[in-house]
Amino acid sequence: MSIQIKNYQTEAEIESLINRFENCTLPRCEWNHETHLTVALWYVISYDEKAAINSLSQNIQRYNAAIGIKTTKHGGYHETLTLFWIKMVSHYLSFIQEKNSILKMAIAISNAYNDKYLPFQYYSRDLLMSWEARTSWVEPDLKPLI
To answer: Distance between CA 84 and CA 46 in Å, rounded?
Structure first.
């Protein structure tokens, strides 16, 4: 299922998004799949992979807590999905010969990964929706990641 892409117009828009996310002032209605991808992109290009994973995981959990999203069996922070999208963004960037502006990369990644159900090509529903997958990284059970 594809989502409607909101193409960013300026790099300042993306910087504002990151600042509002990190300051926990981003409205909940703006915390969607595309926003997650853009935030993941920013962390991947700003930090090494380990630091990107740690910082993004902590900041998503802090943001969720600030806006009242609790981690439960059925919702909230999801470690495997967070790492899945970081890995997909990193993989996509590894094929870009010339690094573009974050604006162009955000638009390209949003277009490439606009199907928020992509993880189900790699994971069975039972595994991906498990508490283990929500709280820690689990390897895909349907096909290997890239």
So the answer is: 18
CB atoms near residue 49 (< 10 Å): 13
pLDDT, position 6: 61
Beta strands in the chain (DSSP E): none
Long-range CB pairs of 36-40, under 8 A, 24+ apart, other chains included = 36/85, 37/85, 37/89, 37/106, 37/109, 37/110, 37/113, 38/8, 38/14, 38/106, 38/109, 38/110, 40/82, 40/85, 40/86, 40/89
Residue-wise pLDDT tens digits, 3-37:
455 678 899 999 999 999 999 999 999 999 999 99
- Residue carrying the six token digits 């993880």: 119
Residue 94 tokens read as 């590894």
CA–CA dist 30, 110 (Å, integer):
15
Q: 119 vs 6, 46, 51, 70, 85, CA distance in Å?
A: 21, 24, 23, 22, 9
The tokens 């997909």 sit on which residue? 88
Q: Where are the domains of the chain?
A: 11-135
